[in-house]
Design a protein that fits this description.
With 330 residues, this protein is of the alpha/beta class. The protein has 2 domains: 238 residues, TIM Barrel; 68 residues, no CATH class. It is built from 14 helices and 12 strands. The strands form 2 sheets. The chain has an 8-stranded parallel beta barrel, surrounded by 8 helices. Strands 6-7 form a two-stranded antiparallel ribbon.
């Protein structure tokens, strides 16, 4: 059976996400992931999913190292891991400057060092139940757990888009969470991860390559593409890092047009600047058969685990999520 995951990044209630995770498990999905952002408390949602499922892996995609402290992340991760019987994966990332400061009132600085410190603290706490840490960005005099985690070691995946973070993944992580990948992304990422792993004396082949892939399914391709357009416009317009990613993925003129429209407050214009080719190259959109073919193409291109990430808002959001889950099932 082909491996596949599903990710949730808003649009559904916590109960609806748990319903979808339960259905995904029944269909053979190997993992379900919950974003942070504005969609609800990810660890609480994953705890609900843990109590509704028995087999499927459960992960954060991702938890920001800036808006939660490292000990808080460690406790939350250990809690969901215990409730799920050892099925939790901790996905960590730096989030975005345009979110961390304006939305959370937290200084965004030295993201790679912050991730390195956070991973070290989390791993020490889970393993030894007590930590003191004098890092580059985080200093903790002492923190100890008042409970014993189910597992002393949890898989840690890092969200990475560009060379430095990919190489850090190779140095310290068990997997990478890419996003909006093209068919060329996995091979390029694997090379950077291997460079980091070599410096740390680690086996790069043991590091899992995953990617969040926006998914839009409909009875006809045009409707699926239209439904995916606003989501890509938002990501390319609001987040400079994703705009750069799209430009480097072969769409520099289109990414620039989206950014200009978004900066002018013209969200409709930003959506119009998103081409069908941009959507098709960086995700999954079309009929059920077309989506399954596209998933196979990603696997053939070197992606260990494709993770569909449906984008849906409004009263029919759950039905649209379920439609994507059913269509992409292994």
């Amino acid at each position: 059976m082909s491996r596949i995951g599903v990710a949730f990044s808003g649009g559904l209630t916590a109960t609806e996400i748990a319903d979808c995770a339960e259905r995904a498990e029944a269909l053979g999905y190997e993992s379900a992931w919950v974003a942070e952002g504005h969609g609800g408390d990810q660890f609480a949602i994953l705890a609900a999913c843990a109590l509704r499922t028995r087999r499927i892996r459960l992960g954060t995609a991702i938890s920001s190292v800036f808006v939660r402290t490292a000990p808080t992340i460690a406790m939350a991760a250990a809690t969901v891991d215990e409730l799920s019987g050892g099925r939790f994966v901790l996905g960590l990332g730096s989030s975005h400057r345009v979110q961390v400061g304006p939305e959370h009132g937290v200084e965004y600085a030295r993201p790679l060092d912050r991730i390195r410190d956070t991973v070290a603290i989390v791993r020490t706490l889970l393993r030894e139940h007590d930590v003191s840490h004098a890092g580059e960005t985080v200093r903790i005099e002492r923190f100890n757990l008042w409970f014993r985690p189910l597992r002393g070691e949890l898989p840690v995946y890092l969200s990475a888009l560009f060379p430095k973070m990919l190489e850090l993944t190779g140095e310290i992580a068990d997997g990478v969470i890419l996003t909006r990948s093209t068919l060329a992304t996995a091979a390029a990422a694997r090379a950077r991860i291997a460079a980091g792993a070599a410096r740390a004396g680690r086996d790069a082949a043991a590091i899992e390559i995953t990617s969040l892939l926006p998914a839009s399914v409909s009875s006809d391709r045009e409707t699926a593409l239209a439904a995916a357009r606003p989501g890509l416009a938002f990501y390319a317009g609001f987040f400079p890092r994703y705009n750069r990613l799209l430009a480097e993925s072969g769409f520099p003129e289109e990414a620039a047009a989206v950014a200009r429209a978004w900066a002018a407050g013209d969200s409709a214009g930003a959506a119009r600047a998103v081409t069908d080719d941009m959507i098709a190259a960086t995700g999954i959109a079309g009929t059920a058969a077309e989506c399954r073919d596209r998933l196979d193409a990603y696997r053939d291109a070197g992606l260990d685990l494709p993770i569909i990430s449906p984008f849906a808002r409004g009263p029919d959001a759950k039905e649209r999520f379920l439609a994507a889950i059913e269509a992409s099932a292994p």
